[in-house]
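Researcher: Sit down with what I've pasted below and flag anything odd:
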Amino acid sequence: MTSPNDSLLDVVRALPHHAGVYLFRDEEDEVLYVGKANSLRSRVGSYFGAEAGKSLKLIRLRREITSVETFPVQSESEALLLEWNLIKEFSPPFNIQLRDDKSFPYIKITVGEPFPRIFVTRRLDEDGSRYLGPFTDVRAMRRALRAIKQMYTVRSCHYQMPDEMPPRPCLDYHIGRCKAPCAGLQSQEEYREMIDDILEILGGRTAGVRRSVTARMREAADELEYERAAEMRDVLRGLDALESRQAAVDPRQGSHDVIGFAREDDLVCGIVLRVREGRLVGRQIYYLANAGEESDETTLGALVKGFYLRRDDDVPPELLVPTGFDEQDLVEEYLAGRRDGPFKIRIPTRGPKLDLIRASSRNAAHVLAQDRVERGPEPLVVPGASERVPAAAMRLAEMLGLATPVRSVVCFDVSTLAGRESVGSAVWLTDGSPNKNEYRKFRIRDSSDDHPDDYAMMQEIVSRYFDRRVREDRPLPDLVAVDGGKGQLSAARQAMDAAGVSDLPTIALAKRDEEVFQPGEREPLRLPRTDIGLQLLQRARDEAHRFALQYNRTLRRRRTLRSRLGEIPGVGPTREQELLKRFGSLEIIRRATAEQLAQTPGIGLATAGAILAALRSEPAGEP
């Protein structure tokens, strides 16, 4: 085990006894881990003490650290938010990562628009909209949305009002499905009141809406406005229909969130049940990556913080959890402040609330069991082999005519946007699971902004990958896969021939029809989507695509950062590069103090003040 170099230990010893957030970086300046501390010196120093040597995860982390970056803050709540923002920004490989199950849809309400729209989406964008879900019962979600649109006259057009306005109301107005705010026939205040009601209903809080609608119905009847009173009556009937479909789970009519989770090997699944006024109104599924070696307390803490810190919708007065977790008091204090009222985290030991905890954990175990079925049969025992071999590895060897199971696959992909920031990726899967220590990313050297050549870019990254691997005498995979068709396959084979690894089995997987191309074969393999060998190739291809796209976005964000900083007087190319290397994003620079910026080579206090003045005069949330 290598120990940190003397200069790094000197940096750690010089840290203040102050609350803050710290980042560990590797030799390529990539963020490895983000954490928070009451005392930066004590907490960061603990990673290099004797106790850290007892954890395999910390040993691996310590080997890769080459620099430490810290951000002192004023309070623990500020540190909690900054820590989560940085984890979301950098996705460090040693932090527990919270991932939504993206297969389920959301209801999107475009609250940032003067006249918001409501529709179903499977994408989560940082656009200021409200997202409700994900919904696991898609039919029930669509029934609820249909009932909402029958109760309320929500516009279905896509005009960017008030900048875009049609010359006349559309058919929806004439059949009573819209009140034509586009033609000035419905005020923004009246429309917003309707959207507020819908948000309450979709959030499971119907009692207040029912009282408000009832009062409006009586007021309309008293004023002899019978048509408006009938509209309110129809809304009440719609509420009755919605409530009849919701499951009553708490006889005491409480409102709370319930969190449970389950483990299976290295997989962790968390379930959040949302109960409002005694009715189960939603279930949300999350997967936690990098949590296999973590305790239940640490895992639950990451789940709770990730769930609430990434959302801006309602917080109930109570959260039910199966056990205590790290920083529970701090989270409770923060959420009480956010809802501007009392908030408690409780660990039930009996009664209906304990039943809810158990139901949530059973849900999580059920989701993991479903995932196991989708991953295919359990590993098989192969005669003569010293360990169990996955069925997918056997099937892949069979379909490609190979003599031995395909235990390891390396897959290549390229990513470019109009020829800008062209990059490549190589990901390594062992028995179908990512081996991130073997991941590699490439910045394409020989690419044209005007006419990017996919084949040339593929040849370049495969050549660079295997040249280095052969030179360093590193292990080679059982199978090489490339994203693409015959052209990409030919380019990869040329690079492999030049590197002296032409004996490695190689295929290309074309995404359009999921065809598998092999060297020397005119016709591709066409396999059913349920084939476990094909699913393994798809998993490798999709992971290579994700990794390449992530790197492409990082470079584009850095380019944007450079261009924005370059507009500030006194910040030239050299200072831009130093700021980029040290901070990584405009949001982090905006949060820093002038003294922190002044620690960057070439940046004095005056220049640091000018940078902060320029950035803080702009809206937050920039790249």
Q: What stands out?
A: The chain has a mean pLDDT of 78. The chain has 20 helices and 23 strands. Residues 532-566 form the longest helix (35 residues).
